[in-house]
Amino acid sequence: MTVTAARRAQAVAALSSTAAIRALADELNAIGVPVLVLKGPLLQERLYGTPAAYPSCDVDVLVHPEHLHPVRRHLRATGWRFAAGNMLLWRLSRSAVFERGSVVLDLHWGIHAGNLPSTSLRRLERAMWSGASLGDHGLYEPAAAPLLVYVSVHGASHGFERREWVEVVARAAAQVEDWDDAWRTARRCRMEGTVRRALAVALDGRPPRPAPLLDGWWGRLAGAASWTMRGHFLPRALRATVARAVHRFHREPS
Question: Are 120 and 108 in contact, with CB atoms under 8 Å apart?
Answer without folding.
Answer: no
